């Protein structure tokens, strides 16, 4: 039978969400968050089915496999911090970045594809909770639109902190995926770094730090995935209604 997926109809315009993780090999929590996203998206959950029908997810779960294999903290086999080489990655020295960047540029140049989100998943050694880094734009309206996804994620994930989320153009970060792609892609694309604490998140008061577990990281990943439902307002397409949301929102 023909697929019900809107995005697979011949000639359909595809909305693409591109997710990468583990560019810094020591940041193991990012792999668990990414695993949570993948597990949710391929599941039979009604939200996952709606997302698969309307969006295309491209996921590169490990951008630095040699660094991970060697047990490096930040660099690749050749000693490069890959997250500073997005501007001009070498096919020889930075092959994973080069491949991903080529794919992103191909999609960007394809009129049938809208690359709407780029999210690079990291872990943070000193801050608590999950939070995001975004880009700074001169255009105030674009800046406001960029804040929508992290605000929605904050409503879905108790461990995600909007107050720790920041938007910057620090020169040190110029070679990162978020910064480079934020400059390359047009103003309908949103590029973020998703950070999650190596150790704890805070619920309620300042004294109530909860240690992260593998399951809690994966839950954050599931909540990232389901936030796309809210972002695209696809809730009406679910076969059965979700639990009612409190009116206070």
Automatic annotation (TrEMBL):
Cofactor(s) needed: Zn(2+)
Protein name listed in UniProt: Cytosolic carboxypeptidase 6
Keywords: Carboxypeptidase, Hydrolase, Protease
Superkingdom in the source lineage: Eukaryota
Biological processes per GO annotation: proteolysis
Domain Peptidase M14: 1-232
Matches recorded under SUPFAM superfamilies: Zn-dependent exopeptidases (SSF53187)
InterPro entries xrefs: Cytosolic_carboxypeptidase, Peptidase_M14
Species this chain originates from: Eudyptes chrysocome
GO MF entry, a single one: metallocarboxypeptidase activity
Pfam families cross-referenced by the UniProt entry: Peptidase_M14
Active site (UniProt): 195 (proton donor/acceptor)
Family statement drawn from the similarity comment of this UniProt entry: Belongs to the peptidase M14 family.
């Amino acid at each position: 039978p023909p697929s019900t997926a809107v995005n697979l109809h011949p000639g359909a315009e595809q909305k693409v969400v591109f997710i990468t993780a583990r560019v810094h090999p020591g940041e193991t929590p990012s792999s668990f968050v990414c695993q949570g996203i993948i597990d949710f998206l391929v599941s039979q959950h009604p939200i996952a089915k709606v997302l698969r029908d309307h969006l295309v997810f491209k996921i590169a779960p490990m951008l630095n496999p040699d660094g991970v294999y060697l047990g490096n903290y930040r660099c690749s086999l050749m000693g490069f911090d890959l997250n500073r080489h997005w501007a001009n990655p070498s096919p020889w020295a930075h092959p994973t970045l080069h491949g991903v960047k080529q794919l992103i540029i191909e999609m960007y140049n394809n009129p049938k594809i809208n690359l709407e989100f780029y999210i690079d998943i990291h872990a943070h050694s000193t801050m608590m909770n999950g939070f995001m880094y975004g880009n700074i734009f001169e255009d105030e309206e674009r800046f406001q639109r960029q804040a929508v996804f992290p605000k929605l994620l904050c409503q879905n994930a108790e461990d995600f902190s909007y107050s720790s989320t920041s938007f910057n153009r620090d020169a040190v970060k110029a070679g990162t995926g978020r910064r480079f792609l934020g400059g390359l892609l047009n103003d309908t694309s949103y590029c973020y770094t998703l950070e999650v604490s190596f150790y704890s998140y805070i619920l309620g008061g300042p004294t109530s730090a909860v240690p992260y577990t593998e399951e809690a990281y994966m839950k954050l990943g599931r909540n990232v995935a389901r936030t796309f439902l809210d972002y695209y307002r696809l809730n009406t397409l679910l076969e059965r209604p979700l639990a009612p949301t409190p009116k206070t929102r």
